[in-house]
Amino acid sequence: MGAITAENVAIAELVVYIPTALLTVWVVFRHGVHKQLGWIYLAIFSGIRIAGSAMEIQSAHNPSDTTSEEWALILQSVGLSPLLLSTLGLLKRVGRIYTKRATATSRRSRAVQLLHIPALIGLILAISGGTDEASDNASDHAGGQTKVRVAVVLFLLIFLAALLLWAVTLRDFRNMQAGQTRIYLCVMVAMPLIAVRLLYSLISNFGNSPQFSLIHGDEAIRLGMASVEEFLVVIMYTILGVFTPRFVGVPEANGRGSVEEVDTSYGPTYQVEDEERVGSGRGHGRHGRH
Q: What is the pTM of this model?
């Protein structure tokens, strides 16, 4: 068996992420581009990994091409943000479906929206810091290392917040429908994988072991603690998107003896509720209000 090299890992990532990216794009359009942010971030992540792998291969075949090496390093350092944002998007979808209090202004919904801010800040810091770390200037390199460390700390805090949100949601597990149960359990399985990926970043940036260095570290460790975990989370979330119905509503008698399904995604749901209240009055409320 040959040694695991950065080029080998990059080739493997291209093999798995190119078809996965096509599938995630299909999932995004299937559920609605403006509705399912959880899956949009998966598509973005897949694109980042494809671009980073291409840069890695280019750098391996042309060692003098420092630009490709620099961008490969930058793109490798921004994986956590899309994964965390995707997880938050899925948890937000679950919360907006099963609980009667989960409206656009609910506390859980606001919490998820607020967590997007540090996640995006962390993404910007990771990109900026990765750029500075690739610099030959000692001052820029030190400043870049600080930025990346701050980004990793932000990702840790976001992960802990997402874990808390998942735990709080557990008390309403029995009220969820089958589709939402699948989302919730999928996130439960993904959390330990994201934790291992986060641990790798923490050791890489705060530890002193050269084996965990993103530049010239042990590729077997990166494969086992980062690449595999990332792919498993992406493929689980993508398969979840394939099998999750576009319209997963709460059964409601509509006065004609039938059951109506409503879009339980984001904004349009509330418009349906408003129109129903106008047409039916306050006495004809919704039993499955989001």
A: 0.79
Residue 176 φ then ψ, to 5°: -80, 150
Q: Per-domain residue ranges for the chain?
A: 6-243, 252-290
Record the tokens describing residue 265, joined without a space. Answer: 């995604």
- 179 φ, ψ (degrees, to nearest 5): -65, -40
Quote the crossing angle between the two packed helices 80-98 and 138-170, to the nearest 10°: 20
Per-residue pLDDT of the chain (290 residues; tens, 9 = 90+): 467 888 888 999 999 999 999 999 998 888 776 555 678 899 999 999 999 899 989 888 888 777 887 888 888 878 889 999 999 888 887 765 444 444 543 676 777 788 889 999 999 998 888 888 777 777 777 888 899 999 999 999 999 999 998 888 888 778 777 778 888 899 999 999 999 999 999 998 898 888 887 777 888 898 999 999 999 999 999 999 888 876 444 443 343 332 323 333 333 333 333 333 444 444 444 444 44
Mean pLDDT, the chain, integer: 77
Per-residue CA distances from 284 to 210, 260, 276 (Å): 66, 14, 8
CATH for the 6-243 domain, from 1.20.1070.10, 3.40.50.1970, 3.40.640.10, 3.50.50.60: 1.20.1070.10
Q: How many CB atoms lie within 10 A of CB 44?
A: 18
Which residue has tokens 């609605």?
A: 32
